Amino acid sequence: MENDSSMFFFNHKYGFSPYKMIKEENLSKHFMPLAYGRDLNGKKFVAIAEAKNYPFYGMQFHPEKI
Hints:
The chain has two helices and three strands.
C-alpha cells in the first residue's frame, strides 16, 4: 500500500528503501513492509513495517500529527 505523503507528517532524513527492506536478509527475516511513503524528493521508503513473529510495528511517520 502506498499512501499520499501529504496526509502525514514526515520529519526524518533517513528511511529504508523497499529494495533494502526486502533484500537485506536480517531485515526481511524479521520484518515485512506494510505501507510506503515518498519523501520530498519523491524517493520511496518503507513507512510501516510489521514484525513477523512478534506483535511489533515500526512507523516512519508521525500518525499523531495530522
